[in-house]
From TrEMBL, chain A:
Keywords: Cell membrane, Membrane, Transmembrane, Transmembrane helix, Transport. The chain crosses the membrane at residues 12-33, 74-97, 109-129, 141-162, 183-208, 261-280. This is ABC transporter permease subunit. GO terms for cellular component: plasma membrane. It comes from Paenibacillus sacheonensis.
TrEMBL record, chain B:
It comes from Paenibacillus sacheonensis. Pfam families: BPD_transp_1 (PF00528). Belongs to the binding-protein-dependent transport system permease family. The keyword Transport applies. GO terms for biological process: transmembrane transport. This is Sugar ABC transporter permease. SUPFAM superfamilies: MetI-like. InterPro entries: MetI-like, MetI-like_sf, UgpAE/MalFG_permease. The chain crosses the membrane at residues 20-45, 82-106, 118-137, 164-186, 216-236, 273-298. The keyword Transmembrane helix applies.
Amino acid sequence: MNAASKLPWGKWLTLAWFTVFSIFCIIPFLYIVSISLSNESDIANYGYKLIPKHITTHAYDFLLQSPKQLLSGYGVSITVTVIGTVASLLITTKLAYALSRKDFGGANSLSFIVFFTMLFSGGLVPWYILIKRYLQIDDSLLVLILPYIIMPWHVLLMKGFLSDIPPALIESAKIDGAGEWRIFYQIILPLAKPALATVALFIAFIYWNDWWLAMLFIDNQNLIPLQYMLYRIMNNIQFLSTSMQSSNISIDITAMPNETARMAIAVMAAGPILFVFPFFQKYFVKGLTVGAVKG
Amino acid sequence: MGFAKWNNFWRGAIRSKGLIGLAIPGLLFVIVFYYLPMLGVVVAFKDFNFSDGLFGSKWVGLQNFKFFFQSDAAFQVTRNTILLNLSFIIITNVLSLVFALLLVGLSRRAVKVFQTTLFFPYFLSWVVVSYVTYALLNPQLGVLNHLLENFGFDQVNWYLESKFWPYILSLAFLWKNIGYSTLIFYTGLLGIDKSYYEAASIDGANKWQQMTKISLPLLTSLITLITLLQVGKIFYSDFGMFYFLTADSGALYQTTDVIDTYVFRALRVSGDIGMASAVGLYQALVGFLLVVGVNALVRKFNKDNAIF
């Protein structure tokens, strides 16, 4: 190690190690992509291969032949993600802003009330009963959105960001006669754009990747988000064929690309996040870093 | 509170009514979705049914708890939860610490590339990850069994053999979380004052000495903080991972059934709401005591690192 770190090959060794590990991180997912592009009979004969013997988009064509189910999944996921992210971001930021104001008397005790929910929770069952029996929002779009509107960690993260805004700015706006709401919308929100982007990404990520709420509360076929649909497909190979039949399109069930179509759906469910992720990675990393330091 | 105090309170509230107005929608959600369920834990002492509701259902004392703790499941799920979490914490933290120390020596561009690739699995949901593990472990078509066959070993029916799953789950956890965990330590390392290293290299210290004498000691507080936070959460597990990766296969419960999956099944599969809530309360209480205990420990250790 002594000599190695002085010589360039010490660095090469590190690079090589990370390259190998990076491949380890990506290859498993490449298998999914590769299977989705394979020929169904090749899979039956040779098993899953990293490089398909024959590349075909048959699985994707098949899914797009009768896209009703898939489109409905996308529709639900996109609706929930967009509405949920906007609503959650606004409500979270408002609360976090009030808590970040040092001249707000209740800030400390209210912050503790938010923080305490990270230490103790009533658990799954009372929460489930509350939503199902008392709020009665189960089996609706609302149940896919409302429970995640406020996440304590997001509030505290946002509060950390907003504490950095100089109080003098707010003071001078007050002297000019601006009320709290106007200060919030016209001064704080524009100043907090990077923080908003970071937290919005966290929230969108949670909504897009969620299957939990659907698993507990959704029965209506038309309200199933993409991730939960994906789970049901994995759970039940027949799911695809029955949904195809019910859509009144005559398909030879034996010619159904079961294995490849399943993987194609997995690719399509993971796709949007993976496209968005490189552009927002900067923000994401920043948010995680602040979160780690301010904890 | 005396009259003067109340007066002050109301005056303060009126003065900051704008801020209170901003906070109210958020607080409402906190109260409804977090504090109401806390009151709802009384359901653990009731024979709950949906038509009578929380208030109408009969009290049954500790019967729900008795049923759980007299079963073999109590020991099994507690053991699995703690041992698997310990394995995740140790493996992921040690490796990501090594990764972070190595990353510091690389150029900015290399760091960026590796950060992106290591981070990639973090963005996949556990459902998508379960497709990945399925592609690897499928008994007939899976990648792993083909490899085993090629090297002349017997194939394994992965979804029926519980003894392999602690390793599989640990690997999957590492795979998904290594990027996140490495980033945290890497950021901690970047925060160390550069002048320490400059002074050390003027005095002739090599990279290894700098690592063990400067980087690690200065990172100790971050490492303890992160580890203790994880230990405080040791009674909880990532439900999606345990439920989807194992395909909820009963043959694997012996090593993979954790408190969260057990509660879910009691609630949704067997419909035993009373027991589900009793186990949930057991988890919440022990989890809370652990967090508080761990925090007290940290406080003793180093006051600045305490969470509250």
